[in-house]
Amino acid sequence: MPFIIGSLIVGGLALAGSVYTADQARKQAGKARSDARAQTSAMSAQAAKQLSVQQEQAKVARERLNFEIGQSSESRSRVEQEAARTAQQLEDQQRVMAEEESNRMRQMRRGGFRSLLSQERVNPEAGLGSFGSSTLGSGTGLR
């Protein structure tokens, strides 16, 4: 009987040892699971934070692009207005120059012969006729 009692004690101790070991293993597994959950939640929080930072950067980039597009549109419209104003000034200058040239040519056609007669009348060496003649400038043939 002492053998039976000894084996029961040893068996009980072994059973108690295995229960203790199983309990320790269960505690370690639970701790490992909670650590894994904590790491997973920390990683997802970090990923969410990184995503929000990237979204903010994308928003800033979009706003900057829209601003630059607006600036280029404004500068393009200013350049176009300046080009139109310059073109109008050039057209006005060309018109004025054409009018002046046209007036000069018309005066040369109309007044050229008369001005020659006027010079002939003023210049007696060019051939004024006699004092009482009916035609002035008859001393030269200009035609």
What are the defining features of this structure?
143 residues, mainly alpha, 1 helix, 85% helix
CA(first)-CA(last) distance: 169 Å
Structural class: mainly alpha
**What is the molecular shape?**
rod-shaped
Let me know the number of strands.
0
Cα radius of gyration in angstroms: 57 Å
Work out the strand percent. Answer: under 5%
Number of helices: 1
Q: What number is the mean pLDDT?
A: 78
**Helix proportion of residues, in percent?**
over 70%
Strand-and-helix sequence, N→C? H
Largest sheet: none
Low-confidence stretches: none
3D architecture notes:
The chain is mostly helical. It is 85% helix and 0% strand. The chain is rod-shaped. The termini are far apart.
Question: What would a concise description of this structure say?
Answer:
It is built from one helix and no strands.
Present the secondary structure layout.
Blueprint (H helix, E strand, L loop, with lengths): L1 H121 L21
